[in-house]
Design brief:
- The structure is a single chain.
- The protein is 8% helix and 33% strand.
- The longest helix is centred in the middle third of the chain and has 13 residues.
- The chain is mainly beta and 208 residues long.
- Pfam families: DUF4479 (PF14794), tRNA_bind (PF01588).
């Protein structure tokens, strides 16, 4: 669940994005201050909009925000009060973490993409399709996992590139809007001592 808030540009609306709707046609069901956004073809909920959001609790920040468990409970109470059966689930896991490329094979339908198996925790490996020229086995980099919001506002969801599933993105310094980021293509390269799964810390992981 990706939660965003921008009072100046959008108004007092808390936007909770659950899934990538792709090209599907969407519809909206609104009850009181709650609007459910869903796909018309299969009725699947892809987002919730909470209007007059500051009436429920104070919201700090602009862009992606992170809710406490107590705040999610409050929103679920409002969903229940308005008659919605679904409930929100809070996800507090870090979405930008150190990743280590453990395996890499060439994409069968591309001359520049690679299919990588990337460790993003002690017991977690995800498949990521990448096209950076410096991608290589053993490289440690920063991974944006599904549920992340990039500095440019784009959202990371599970997807596929030319038929191969991809569960995140290995990031370049430019994509992370890091200061003095080189303009050439390539994912960020971290020290070999970094541990997969460590949350991204710009002050620690970038000192250019």
């Amino acid at each position: 669940m990706i939660v965003t808030y921008n009072k100046e540009q959008v108004g007092d609306v808390l936007m909770l994005t659950l899934k990538n709707s792709g090209e599907a046609k969407l519809a909206v069901e609104r009850k009181g201050k709650v609007a459910r956004v869903y796909r018309e073809d299969n009725q699947e909920t892809v987002a919730w909009n909470i209007f007059d959001a500051s009436s429920f609790f104070a919201i700090e920040g602009n862009g992606q925000v992170f809710l406490t468990d107590e705040q999610v409970v409050r929103l679920n109470q409002e969903l229940e009060r308005e008659g919605f059966a679904e409930r929100l689930v809070n996800d507090r896991e870090p979405k930008f973490v150190v990743g280590e490329i453990r395996e890499m094979v060439a994409h069968p339908d591309s001359d520049h993409l690679n299919i990588c198996q990337v460790a993003v925790g002690p017991d977690k490996t995800v498949q990521i399709v990448a096209g950076a020229p410096n991608t290589r086995v053993g490289l440690k980099t920063i991974v944006a996992l599904p549920g992340a919001m990039m500095p440019d506002g784009s959202l990371i969801f599970p997807g596929a590139l030319r038929g191969e599933k991809s569960y995140g993105m290995m990031c370049s310094p430019r994509e992370l809007h890091l200061p003095n980021a080189p303009q050439k293509r390539g994912i960020i390269e971290l020290d070999d001592a970094e541990v997969a799964g460590t949350p991204f810390d710009p002050a620690r992981h970038w000192n250019e």
